[in-house]
C-alpha cells in the first residue's frame, strides 16, 4: 500500500508513534510518505520505502499567522498525485484532520479517491480541541474522516463525551518494538556516569508543560531523597522548566537533580533508571511511561485518562490521584526501598509493556487501512 502519514515531527509521543508506525509499515513492504514541516525526530532511516516531504509555509508580511493548514493540504494533493498515494493517515486531529479533509475534497474534484484515517492522541481532544475556538472544526474533521482511531479507551470515552461524534471510534493502543530493548543486545548502559551504586535513579521525561505537573515530580523526589540515596533525571524542554529549576534550588536539592534537556537517546537514560514518575493532570495514554516500562523501569503515575490502561497498579508500578504527592512518594519508596520488590516491579513493567508490542498492534492498522480502502471505493 502507498500511505501518506501526517504528524508532528517533534519529540511528542504522537509524532514518535506515527514515525515508528511508518517505519514498521515500510518494513512490512508498504511505501510510506511522511508529510510534515520538518523531518520527524525519530526518522533516522530514510530508505527506498520511506520518503519525507517537507511542507514549506512562505512568509508574507500580510500574514500575522502563517497558513500552515493551507500549505499542508496543497502539499498533500501534490504528493498524492505524484506518488499515487492510496491512503492518508493523520495523527493528531488539529490541524491535520482538517487539512487532510481539504486535500481529500480537492482530490475528489479531480476524480481521485483518498480515504483518510484520523488517529486521536489526547490533547487534540481533551485540552486544545475541546476549546470553543476549535471545537466545530475538530468535530467536523472527526465526523468526516473515513476511519477514526483513539490511542486508549479513555480517550474514546472523552471524545464521545466532549464532541457530537457520528462515526465509530476504534481503539488502537500505542505500541513499542520490544525486540529493540532486549537487554542482552544493549550493553552500553553507563549508570556509573550518573550516580553512585547505592543511589536509586528516578527519571521524568516530558515536554515540561503545565499538564505534566512538573512541580509534583520535584516534590515527590524531595520526599524520596529524604529517606533514601537517590538522583533525579529530568529529561525534556518546555515552559515549566525554569519554574522546576527554581523549585529545585529552593528545596536545596540541586546536587541531586540533573536537567538533561531534550534527548534523542532516551533509552540510554532509561536503561539505568529504577523508577519513572508521571504525575500528569491528564494523559490519554502516557507513551513515555510505556517507553520506561519496556526498559524495565517501574512507573509511579497518576490514575488519570488512559494511564490505568498502561501502568498496571501493583504490577508495573502504582497509580494515585492527581496531586497526591504524599501517596506517590510513599508508593515510590515502597518500590525502591527493597531490592527484591524493585526487581519484581521492573520485571512486571517489562511484562506489561510486552502487551503493547509492535507485532500485536501494527496488523490492526493494516486491517483498518484495508477496510478503509474497500469502504471508500467509488
Ligand atoms: O501532550 C500532548 O499534547 C502531546 C501529545 C503528543 O503529541 O505526544 O501527547 C498525547 O499523545 C501521546 C501519544 O499518543 C500520548 O501518549 C499522551 O498521553 C498524550 N498527551 C496527553 O494526553 C496529555
UniProtKB/TrEMBL annotation:
Domain Glycosyl transferase family: 196-351
Glycosyltransferase subfamily 4-like N-terminal domain sequence ranges: 11-179
Domain of life: Bacteria
InterPro entries reported for this sequence: Glyco_trans_1 (IPR001296), Glyco_trans_4-like_N (IPR028098), Glycosyltransferase_grp1 (IPR050194), Thiol_BshA (IPR023881)
NCBIfam families hit by this protein: thiol_BshA
Name assigned to this protein: N-acetyl-alpha-D-glucosaminyl L-malate synthase BshA
Origin species: Salegentibacter maritimus
Amino acid at each position: 500500500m502507498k500511505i501518506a502519514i501526517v504528524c508532528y515531527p517533534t519529540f511528542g509521543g504522537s509524532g514518535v508513534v506515527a514515525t515508528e508506525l511508518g517505519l514498521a509499515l515500510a518494513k512490512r513492504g508498504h511505501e510510506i510518505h511522511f508529510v510534515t514541516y520538518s523531518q520527524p525526530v525519530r526518522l533516522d532511516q530514510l530508505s527506498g520505502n520511506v520518503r519525507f516531504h517537507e511542507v514549506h509555509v512562505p512568509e508574507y508580511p500580510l500574514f500575522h499567522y502563517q497558513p500552515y493548514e493551507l500549505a499542508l493540504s496543497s502539499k498533500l494533493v501534490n504528493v498524492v498525485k505524484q506518488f499515487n498515494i492510496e491512503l492518508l493517515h493523520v495523527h493528531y486531529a488539529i490541524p491535520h484532520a482538517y487539512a487532510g479533509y481539504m486535500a481529500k475534497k480537492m482530490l475528489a474534484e479531480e476524480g481521485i479517491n483518498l480515504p483518510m484515517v484520523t488517529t486521536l492522541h489526547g490533547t487534540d481532544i481533551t485540552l486544545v480541541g475541546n476549546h470553543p475556538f476549535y471545537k466545530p472544526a475538530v468535530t467536523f474533521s472527526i465526523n468526516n474522516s473515513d476511519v477514526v482511531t483513539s490511542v486508549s479507551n479513555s480517550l474514546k470515552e472523552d471524545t464521545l463525551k466532549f464532541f457530537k461524534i457520528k462515526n465509530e471510534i476504534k481503539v488502537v493502543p500505542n505500541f513499542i518494538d520490544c525486540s529493540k530493548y532486549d537487554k542482552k543486545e544493549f550493553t552500553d548502559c553507563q549508570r556509573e556516569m550518573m550516580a553512585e551504586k547505592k543511589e536509586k535513579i528516578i527519571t521524568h521525561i516530558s515536554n515540561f508543560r503545565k499538564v505534566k505537573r512538573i512541580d509534583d515530580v520535584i516534590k515527590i523526589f524531595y520526599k524520596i531523597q529524604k529517606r533514601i540515596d537517590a538522583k533525579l533525571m529530568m529529561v525534556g524542554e518546555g515552559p515549566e522548566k525554569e519554574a522546576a529549576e527554581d523549585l529545585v534550588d529552593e528545596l536545596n536539592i540541586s546536587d541531586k537533580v540533573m536537567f538533561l534537556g531534550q534527548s534523542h537517546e532516551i533509552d540510554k537514560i532509561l536503561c539505568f533508571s529504577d523508577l519513572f514518575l508521571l504525575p500528569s493532570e491528564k494523559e490519554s495514554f502516557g507513551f513515555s511511561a510505556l517507553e520506561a516500562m519496556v526498559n524495565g523501569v517501574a512507573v509511579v503515575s497518576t490514575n488519570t485518562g488512559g494511564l490505568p490502561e498502561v501502568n498496571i497498579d501493583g504490577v508495573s508500578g502504582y497509580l494515585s490521584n492527581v496531586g497526591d504527592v504524599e501517596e506517590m512518594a510513599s508508593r515510590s519508596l515502597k518500590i525502591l526501598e527493597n531490592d527484591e520488590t524493585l526487581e519484581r516491579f521492573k520485571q512486571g513493567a517489562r511484562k506489561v509493556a510486552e502487551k503493547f508490542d509492535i507485532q500485536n498492534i501494527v496488523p490492526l492498522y493494516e486491517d483498518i487501512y484495508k477496510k478503509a480502502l474497500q469502504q471508500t471505493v467509488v
